Amino acid sequence: MRPNHNNQSGEANPPPASEIAAVAPAGAVVKINGRHVAAAEETVATELPLTVYLNRKELVTLVCSPGGEEDLITGFLVSEGIVAAPADISSLRLNRRRGLAAIETKSTDPLSEDMFLKRGISSCCGKGRTSFYFVNDARMAKSRQIARDWQVKVQDIYHYMELLEAASAIFRQTGGVHEGALAADGKLSCFAFDIGRHNVLDKLYGQALRQGDDVARHAVVFSGRISSEILIKTGKMGCPLIAGASAPTDLALELARELGITVIGFARRERMNIYTHPERVAAD
Fold it and tell me: What is the DSSP letter of 12?
């Protein structure tokens, strides 16, 4: 377990640094603004293909942003049900330059390795619109107990979204990453950015698990739209609420109603839409 060192502003510390930079020069760019044309130097987000080997067998290649790779792998393995907890991982070795990660587990028969990437027709929770899911998605989302007694204030949601925006330095540089955070008690306990929106939630989950945070008492705040993929990730983490800066999708809302998750969209500048389970959001 590693300590959680938040800074005094309530922002979570940035993800652990990688030897590969999260941004790269784009070279000379021609910029057009109306009738004005000029050459300028720009930066872009870096992509890192990371091939994960589990017990010496290739499992998956994750295309991600450099930084927080241990969190990403830990969150991915637990959320997919391949391991039950970080303690089940006996070793995790990274070679970032080669884009390789080697994980050994204490069990030679991980929980869901054979089910990973196996698709099935499912309604996720057994009663909604039939959709196409990974088998592990439905199983893991249904296994989490979502806290019914947890509440957050309206002003706290605004505050958390402001903290998320303030922490989003890589997005301001490149415009090419998603950001998210886990928030509780007036601060961000975990922050992550990535080119892949689903990777953001895996990084958050891994970071929280490694810190020993109670994810079930945190809100997810997210920079983008809330799709069914993001909602299922939230459910697999066991978080009771997700607030996004953009809109949710219809399937995300259907899943949220079934799983008992509060969805907030367009949360910015003293505005928000509460789409599901509004009882968790308390007026000041």
Answer: P
Q: Are strands 262-268 and 119-122 parallel, antiparallel or unpaired?
A: unpaired
- Is there a contact between 210 and 70 (Cβ–Cβ < 8 Å)? yes
Question: With the C-alpha atoms ordered 168, 182, 67, 61, is the resulting torsion angle positive or negative?
Answer: negative
Residues with a known catalytic role = 125
Count of alpha carbons within 13 Å of 153, Cβ hemisphere only?
Answer: 7
**Could you give the angle at which helices 69-79 and 228-237 cross, rounded to 10 degrees?**
90
- In one-letter notation, the amino acid at residue 152 is V
- pLDDT, tens digit (0-9, with 9 covering 90-100), for 175-201: 999 999 999 999 999 999 999 999 999
Contacts of 252 (CB under 8 A, 6+ apart): 226, 227, 228, 230, 231, 263
Q: What is the pLDDT of residue 20?
A: 81
Whether the CB-CB separation of 18 and 12 falls below 8 Å is answered with: no
Secondary structure class of 168 (helix, strand, coil): coil
Confidence of residue 124 (pLDDT cuts 50, 70, 90): very low
- For 113-145, the three-class secondary structure string (H helix, E strand, C coil) is HHHCCCEEEECCCCCCCCEEEEHHHHHHHHHCC
In the predicted model, what is the mean pLDDT of the chain? 87
Average pLDDT rounded to a whole number, residues 267-278: 95
Q: Give the model confidence (pLDDT) of 54-79 as tens digits.
A: 999 999 999 999 999 999 999 999 99
Give residue limits of the domains in the chain.
152-282
Domain 152-282's class? alpha beta
